[in-house]
Q: What sequence folds into this?
């Protein structure tokens, strides 16, 4: 699908991003208009630049004093192209869920910008922000807590129409809700049932229907299938892929299950301790990883094939993930990296195409934040 | 983790994603069941709930239609005829049934009319406390930050004042103690408990994914508070309120006993009056005490039954 | 692997193997619930030898955890009931033992590791105390000796700076470390067998690899039997010697690990294998088993899998298939393989 952008003109740091065309808007109406304007397939629709989120650690009862910060997201930049699925993987504490919340404006950014069609949505308010909310929706992880247990399914899916009445006229709402239920594979007659009367997989479909109600352009999926049974996961993944084709959606798919992410994503970004370690197309990342963390991560994933296990290289990391309140200096991965050298503790590696691969036509030529990046195939048997 | 019995039981529907496979018709037997509906089903089968409900309904009838239960006059007594007359336990529900007091008034009639004081104060106070405490708790819990800090310290201050002592001191300065005055005093010192309960419930609910989802849709704060947070915090609040009802009834009786309660007929007054004659006319104190105990117990049992029905862990 | 079944002859045990350490025979477990009787386990047979790893694979409602809990004897006996079955440990039926005898076996000879270490450890006692307690209670060691042994064990499960951390509390450890502490506690009395119920489901994948490696190493060293309960086909491929696949309270297929992945003999197994996305390839649309996992209050008649099976025929809706030995096309025995499907021949031989 979409290629990571070609920034070969730049020297040192080549972020995996194309130039942001900031939209010129002078009024709220213009802003809304710019937000509603369609984007061509393959063009960047969301552009995140240097996103930072620090959660302050405070002390004190009435007047709190800040004594430190959890650096959950510490400088993340990427683009999302229209029609593609960008997967974001990482282990617990890497900040991927926080990124999702920042994109949805459920948390305030500490620093950085999020450009949606050329406008920085972190600075919008009023009608413009409402317009943005219509276009960027989210599907949550836990089907057992993401639906209000005291509302009927019809109310849950219909709520977006109550909040944004311009999307559907009042008389039309019931019909639209039933249509949505049908689209996600549920019987429209269930419109008056309550969430606890459904199974996990069905509840997740309800969540997806809710996300689709406003005809968004981007859906951020935060671990949408992790809490489901294996046999149901495939159903929901297929549903999501079909919906993407049918409604021309762009997905950001956040998960820790690397196999599922590979299956559904066009490009994948690997996060570690608040930063992106490596980003590229699924083939580049999975078959030609260059960052040691990615390699360790991939080698740890058990493959359902006893024969393949033998030929694969195993990398077992030592130690624990450092605390995000106190990340290591320089490269954050150096405390667990078998290649770490002095340079790694003094110089922060930039997310860029490694020098040795620059200009070379090889799948290894994708952005990686390592001073000593090197290709290693850990997924296939030797 | 997914639990095994919650699959959609009504249909054997394959729930297939393939558009080619149409969904079969759902069985009409499965009605939609809200969580309140489930709780009600549970309650209906609970003996304690049934017993306490019957008692409470009876009490309410006594409060609103005392004439159905007695023709006697609770305020006026004929000293010449009925001074300290013993109970005639055979004549059930008559004016003589439970005897007469030092002022010749029918104990039974006073029992019936005394219910009003207790029920009025109990329900009134609970209502006021729920509104005030609930509101404060909700605001503190939802907005957090400095608002929460300030409101919580306020709650702490009020909590620090001993409940009965505070009410007694307040009521002491009011010579005219109508029901409103008593309700006001009790509420003034009692709202904090519900504020705490509500605050805790709101803080828990606020973090739920469905609240985040509503925010993500752009829902306004009032919508989130009243559509999402409030319905899900009602359960613990209802339980505490119901049990508190019983406690407030007891408090009213205590205040009346000390001479600081309602000016009119009240069980507490009778218990107090009866105390001086306990050696010669035990019935004056005995029957109001029994009645009071049963009433308080009824509400506490109701609260327990409701708590068990609403507790998701026992489902 | 021997499968005890009325209809089928018993295939020969593995060469050089003694009798199994643990054998479950025709186990049935029921729960009395408000809405009726839930038959969670419906005639399960499996066994484990010393040094062997049996993986019990299944989704929610399959009965895999309930079976394990029945083995350990930790089910709450009202609502739960065991109407039928035997659980033989070293040849003796544990269900017929007294509570006292059972308690001696539990923890000492058979130990269990749970999914969520945080709720299985007492948050107000230090980990050293909790591990040491096992030594103090079962082996009568003094506090000092128990503490020394705790440190030794923590070292053994590769907790760094064990001597310094022995006084720390459970919440001060990461998820992976806590799981290791659970493993340490399970190992303390050198049991013959460990039952691990989804030990790594809540852990990150790199930590999962570490923990599974540790388990495998310890198993080899102590020659323990290991029952691994999981839904993760990847973990199973790494670690197991043989697999029992469960569905709706029954075993639907048994096989040695390589055989299962190469040539499954049951449509459910095949469906599961086809539906998981691969790390090493990118496929088209995933094969999805249609329908939902069964509601144990209303188990379908006949084969419980029939509403979801692409190959279901009339007989599948009426007759419950029995677990039979699976053979090659020419009839030669395939050791350790069984399938509970009327049409297993089509599934395995195509």
A:
């Amino acid at each position: 699908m979409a290629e990571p952008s070609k920034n070969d003109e730049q020297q040192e740091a080549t972020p995996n991003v194309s130039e942001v065309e900031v939209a010129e808007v002078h009024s709220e109406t213009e802003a809304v208009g710019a937000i509603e304007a369609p984007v061509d397939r393959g063009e960047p629709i969301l552009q995140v630049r240097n996103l930072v989120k620090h959660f302050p650690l405070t002390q004190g009862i009435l007047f709190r004093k800040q004594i430190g910060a959890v650096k959950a997201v510490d400088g993340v930049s990427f683009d999302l192209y229209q029609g593609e699925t960008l997967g974001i993987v990482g282990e617990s504490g890497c900040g991927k869920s926080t990124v999702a919340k920042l994109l949805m404006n459920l948390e305030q950014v500490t620093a950085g910008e999020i450009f949606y069609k050329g406008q920085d949505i972190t600075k919008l308010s009023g009608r413009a922000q409402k317009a943005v909310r219509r276009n960027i929706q989210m599907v949550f992880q836990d089907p057992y807590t993401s639906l209000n247990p005291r509302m009927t399914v019809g109310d849950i899916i219909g709520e977006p129409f109550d909040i944004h009445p311009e999307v559907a006229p009042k008389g039309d709402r019931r019909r639209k809700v039933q249509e949505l239920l049908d689209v996600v594979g549920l019987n429209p007659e269930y419109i008056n049932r309550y969430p606890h009367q459904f199974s996990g997989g069905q509840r997740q479909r309800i969540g997806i229907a809710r996300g689709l109600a406003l005809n968004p352009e981007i859906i951020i999926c935060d671990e949408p299938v992790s809490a489901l049974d294996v046999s149901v996961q495939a159903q929901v993944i297929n549903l999501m892929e079909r919906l993407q084709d049918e409604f021309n959606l762009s997905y950001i798919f956040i998960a820790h299950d690397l196999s599922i992410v590979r299956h559904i994503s066009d490009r994948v970004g690997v996060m570690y301790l608040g930063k992106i370690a490596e980003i590229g197309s699924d083939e580049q990342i999975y078959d030609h990883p260059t960052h040691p963390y990615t390699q360790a991560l991939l080698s740890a994933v058990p493959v359902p094939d006893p024969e393949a296990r033998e030929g694969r290289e195993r990398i077992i990391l030592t130690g624990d993930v450092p605390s995000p309140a106190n990340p290591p200096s320089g490269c954050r991965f150096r405390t667990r990296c078998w290649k770490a050298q002095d340079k790694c503790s003094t110089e922060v590696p930039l997310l860029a195409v490694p020098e040795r691969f620059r200009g070379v036509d090889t799948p290894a030529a994708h952005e990686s934040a390592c001073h000593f990046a090197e290709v290693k195939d850990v997924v296939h048997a030797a | 983790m997914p639990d095994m019995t919650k699959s959609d039981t009504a249909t054997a529907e394959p729930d297939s994603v393939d558009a080619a496979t149409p969904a079969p018709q759902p069985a009409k037997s499965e009605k939609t069941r809200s969580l309140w509906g489930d709780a009600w089903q549970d309650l209906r089968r609970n003996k304690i709930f049934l017993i306490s409900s019957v008692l409470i309904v009876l009490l309410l009838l006594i409060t609103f239609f005392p004439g159905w239960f007695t023709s006697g006059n609770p305020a006026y007594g004929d000293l010449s005829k009925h001074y300290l007359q013993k109970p005639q336990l055979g004549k059930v529900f008559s004016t003589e049934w439970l005897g007469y007091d030092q002022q010749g008034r029918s104990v039974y009639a006073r029992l019936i009319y005394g219910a009003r004081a207790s029920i009025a104060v109990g329900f009134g106070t609970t209502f006021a406390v729920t509104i005030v405490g609930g509101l404060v708790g909700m605001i503190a819990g939802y907005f957090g930050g400095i608002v929460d800090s300030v409101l919580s310290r306020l709650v702490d201050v009020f909590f620090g004042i001993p409940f009965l002592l505070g009410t007694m001191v307040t009521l002491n300065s009011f010579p005219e103690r109508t029901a409103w005055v008593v309700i006001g005093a009790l509420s003034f010192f009692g709202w904090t408990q519900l504020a705490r309960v509500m605050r805790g419930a709101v803080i828990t609910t606020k973090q739920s994914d469905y609240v985040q989802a509503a925010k993500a849709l752009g829902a306004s704060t009032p919508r989130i508070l009243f559509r999402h947070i409030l319905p899900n915090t009602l359960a613990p609040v209802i339980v505490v309120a119901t049990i508190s009802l019983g406690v407030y009834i007891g408090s009213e009786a205590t205040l009346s006993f000390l001479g600081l309660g309602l000016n009119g007929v009240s069980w507490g007054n009778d218990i107090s009056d009866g105390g001086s004659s306990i050696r010669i006319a035990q019935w004056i104190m005995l029957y109001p005490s029994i009645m009071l105990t049963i009433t308080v117990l009824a509400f506490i049992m109701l609260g327990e039954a409701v708590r068990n029905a609403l507790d998701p862990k026992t489902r | 692997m021997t499968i005890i079944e009325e209809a089928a002859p018993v295939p020969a045990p593995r060469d050089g193997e003694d009798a199994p350490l643990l054998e479950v025979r025709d186990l049935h477990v029921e729960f009395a619930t408000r809405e009726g009787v839930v038959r969670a386990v419906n005639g399960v047979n499996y066994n484990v030898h010393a040094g062997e790893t049996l993986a019990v694979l299944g989704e929610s409602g399959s009965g895999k955890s309930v079976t394990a809990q029945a083995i350990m004897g930790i089910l709450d006996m009202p609502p739960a009931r065991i109407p039928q079955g035997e659980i033989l440990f070293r040849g003796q039926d544990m269900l017929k033992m007294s509570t006292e005898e059972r308690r001696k076996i539990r923890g000492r000879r058979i130990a269990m590791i749970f999914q969520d270490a945080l709720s299985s450890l007492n948050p107000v006692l230090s980990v050293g105390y909790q591990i040491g307690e096992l030594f103090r209670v079962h082996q009568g060691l003094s506090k000092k000796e128990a503490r020394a042994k705790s440190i030794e064990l923590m070292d053994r499960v590769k907790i760094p700076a064990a001597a310094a951390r022995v006084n720390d509390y459970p919440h001060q450890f990461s998820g992976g470390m806590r799981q290791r502490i659970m493993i340490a506690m399970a190992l303390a009395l050198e049991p013959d067998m460990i039952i691990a119920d989804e030990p790594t489901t809540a852990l990150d994948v790199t930590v999962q690899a570490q923990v599974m490696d540790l388990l495998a190493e310890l198993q080899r060293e102590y020659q323990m039997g290991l029952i691994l309960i999981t839904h993760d086909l990847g973990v199973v491929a790494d670690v197991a010697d043989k697999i029992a696949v469960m569905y709706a309270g029954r075993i639907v297929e048994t096989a040695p690990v390589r055989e299962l992945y190469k040539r499954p003999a049951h449509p459910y197994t095949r469906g599961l294998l086809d539906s998981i996305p691969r790390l090493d390839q990118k496929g088209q649309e995933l094969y999805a088993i249609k329908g939902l996992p069964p509601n144990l209050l209303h188990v379908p008649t006949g084969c419980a899998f029939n509403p979801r099976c692409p190959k279901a025929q009339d007989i599948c809706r009426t007759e419950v298939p029995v677990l039979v030995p699976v053979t090659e096309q020419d009839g030669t025995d395939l050791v350790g393989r069984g399938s509970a499907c009327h049409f297993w021949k089509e599934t395995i031989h195509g």
In short: Residues 111 and 229 of chain B are 43 Å apart (CA to CA). Chain B touches chain A at residues 1-2, 6-8, 11, 13, 15-17, 23, 26, 30, 32-36, 149, 153, 208-210, 212-220, 223, 227-228, 231-232 (CB under 8 Å). Residues 1-29 of chain B have pLDDT under 50 and may be disordered. Residues 107-143 of chain B form the longest helix (37 residues).
